[in-house]
Design brief:
This protein has 2 domains: 205 residues, 3-Layer(aba) Sandwich (Rossmann fold), CATH 3.40.50.2000; 176 residues, Rossmann fold (3-Layer(aba) Sandwich). The protein is 41% helix and 16% strand. The chain is built from 17 helices and 13 strands. The strands form 2 sheets. It has a 7-stranded parallel beta sheet, sandwiched between helices. A 6-stranded parallel beta sheet has the order 10-9-8-11-12-13, sandwiched between helices. α5 links the parallel β5 and β6. α8 crosses α13 and α11 crosses α14. It is globular and about 65 Å long.
């Protein structure tokens, strides 16, 4: 059987299960894929926490609906029974689960009712430093039989293979992609002016959800050190529960005039185009979209060595990806702020690598073939070998 024989004239019905449908990397990628693939698919979405923020990113013509089926009030075994009954009743062509928060649906589908793809993007703060034994065993049980498991980073591929002990024939490395043309546009002066950003110094920025595992406090402390010897300004783009704590830290360090909290920005490419340096300070990441977008925007990356970040950036940038240490990150910031030709050269190398290795169209085509292939692991693996780089 070939992939072409799997294709159907009618839209393929996909059930997506997220722990949350708030704005985040996996959710935004889903919206991007849904918009790009259009009428090929009908999407049913379950958000385990009931949130639906990412719906605003879907085009008006996309066939997608939210379903309330988390059953969090039920005991564990009854939840699994309810999920299993849901799958029997609705019979989706494929169920796609995202990260640990949706793993119960994988357990419910253990004796397979419908083909299953599990996409694992990374970990929350509870797994930022080590794997939890209970979760390792649960993933091994839920995902090792007939599920296809997709990971966007080589780091996660190693964890899934060596720690979770998932069969390699059912494990796919599929890197994220970025719209390189969109992120090569010029900055929008209206947005820059509205944020009140200075024009007489180097702008360091980051785009991220303000959550504990992103450890923006590390970046703020590193910036506080760097600014003592270099003229620079920090822009933090994003929202989240940590914002008030981070603003308090900024006040404590007397940096209110040196740091801008921009909040959510719908067109981050215009702000990225105005930056001189992109920074990342997370405790845990795999293949962060912010780094890809910054690379496509021709920015150098100053960051900590987490997930695939060091292998993502161009070779000249790898020196500026350091251990998770405030002083090392501060030194990296100082070096890049002080050397304009260096950061511009590195930025061009990053942009070239993003265009070559992380183009959005490659990712869209790979997911399209994956969603249409169902549970045919061998065909997916064989067809995607050149794209997945396994």
């Amino acid at each position: 059987m070939t992939l072409s024989s799997v294709s159907q004239a009618s839209p393929r019905r996909l059930l997506h299960v997220f722990s949350t449908f708030r704005i985040g990397g996996p959710q935004v990628r889903f919206a991007l894929l849904a918009n790009a693939l259009g009428a090929k698919y009908k999407h049913s979405i379950i958000s385990m926490d009931g949130s639906a923020d990412t719906l605003q990113h879907l085009g008006a013509s996309i066939d997608a609906n939210m379903i309330h089926a988390s059953h969090k009030d039920l005991p564990f075994h009854r939840r699994l029974m309810a999920y299993r009954q849901f799958l029997r009743t609705h019979q989706p062509d494929q169920i796609i689960t995202y990260n640990w928060g949706a793993i119960e649906w994988a357990l419910a589908n253990l004796r397979q009712i419908c083909p299953h793809v599990h996409i694992e993007d990374g970990f929350g703060p509870e797994e930022s430093h080590r794997q939890l034994a209970r979760r390792v065993w649960t993933r091994r049980l839920a995902l090792s039989r007939k599920s296809l498991v997709v990971v966007p980073s080589r780091t996660l591929y190693g964890i899934a293979s060596n720690i979770w002990k998932l069969p390699r024939k059912r494990l796919l490395y599929l890197p994220n992609g970025v719209n390189c043309q969109r992120f090569s546009e010029k900055s929008n002066p209206h947005i820059i002016d509205s944020l009140g950003l200075p024009k007489d110094r180097a702008l360091i920025g980051t785009v991220t959800a303000l959550r504990p595992e992103k450890n923006i406090s590390r970046l703020i402390h590193a910036f506080a050190v760097a600014r003592q010897s270099q003229l620079c300004h920090l822009v933090i783009i994003g929202e989240g529960g940590e914002r008030s704590k981070l603003e308090d830290l900024t006040k404590k360090l007397n940096l209110q005039q040196e740091i801008t909290f921009a909040g959510h920005v719908s067109d981050p490419e215009h702000v990225l185009a105005a930056l001189d340096i992109y920074a990342i300070s997370s405790d845990t990441e795999q293949m962060p979209y912010g780094v890809l977008e910054a690379m496509a925007s021709a920015l150098p990356i100053a960051g900590v060595d987490v997930g695939d970040v060091k292998s993502m950036v161009a070779n000249p940038n790898q020196t500026f990806i350091t251990p998770k240490d405030v002083n090392r990150l501060a030194q990296t910031l100082k070096t890049l702020v002080a050397d304009i030709p260096l950061r511009q050269s590195i930025g061009r190398e990053n942009q070239n690598k993003a265009r070559k290795d992380f183009n959005e169209s490659q990712m869209i085509n790979a997911y399209d073939r994956l969603f249409r292939a169902g549970d045919q692991a061998n065909h997916v693996q064989e067809s995607h070998a050149s794209i997945l780089k396994i």
